[in-house]
Amino acid sequence: MRTRFLFVRHGDSLHKQEGVTGGPRSCRGLTVAGREQARRLGRRLAAEIAGTGASVYSSVLPRAVETATAISAACGLPFSRDSQDCGLCTWHIPPEADGLSNEEFLRSFPAEGGGVHRPFQAGNESWAELVTRVSRTVADLAHRHRGETVIVVGHAETVEVSFNALGLLPAYRSFDLEVSPASVTEWVTDEDPGQWPPPRWTLTRFNET
User: Fold this and answer.
1) Contacts for 195 with CB less than 8 Å, ≥ 6 apart
2) pLDDT tens readout for residues 132-164
3) Is the N-terminal amide bond of 181 cis, ω within 30° of 0?
């Protein structure tokens, strides 16, 4: 029984190009280059999973939804609003910060003592809260899709948290990760994802573009 997770970061996005926070209200999806990245990635994944089938999930943010839509179309897999899960999102920023430039967000929402368990910006999540939220969602998907392939389209932080959720690293890592747009990170296990103690997962590739 092999369970396989393919974590995908969304393609090149307008919010990144424009330097804005890119929350649910202000995210405008992918750039022209990002849409081409998503189409090419979809074709590649379609060849990889041909004949095996898979499930596609994404965060609720337009840049991830647009990427997942391209992948599902290329792979011939269903993808709907029910496949979009806020648990896979990047930072849950305060609504009043949605659409601000990154510089203005940092300037207008200062918070002292930010770190693993305290947010760096007032009203934002702490890193530990983000890790817990995404990890719970990944664990639920693993439980639901035992022995199957799951394509998760999210954000750099979604990919990073896979190291916590499946690799069981502590919330604070002693190293950083660089996650490229439209990249693939793959984890597999031949054990039961719902077992206790937790199964051992194998990282078979990281940040492949």
Assistant:
1) none
2) 999 999 999 999 999 999 999 999 999 999 999
3) no
72: left (phi over 0), alpha (psi -120 to 50) or beta: alpha
Residue 45 is encoded by which pair of tokens? 């994944």
For residues 209 and 10, the answer to whether their CB atoms sit within 8 Å is: no
Residue 145 near residue 156 (C-beta atoms within 8 A)? no
> Which residues, at least 6 apart from 163, have a Cβ–Cβ distance to it below 8 Å?
169, 173, 177, 203
Instruction: Retrieve residue 200's tokens.
Output: 């051992």
Which stretches does DSSP call E strand in the chain?
Answer: 3-9, 55-58, 149-154, 184-189, 202-208
Structure confidence by residue, pLDDT tens digits, 179-203? 999 999 999 999 999 999 999 999 9
Which residue in this structure is represented by tokens 């890592």? 173
Contact 79, 72 (CB under 8 A): yes
170's tokens:
């502590």
Cβ–Cβ < 8 Å for 41, 184: yes
Band (1; pLDDT cuts 50, 70, 90) = confident
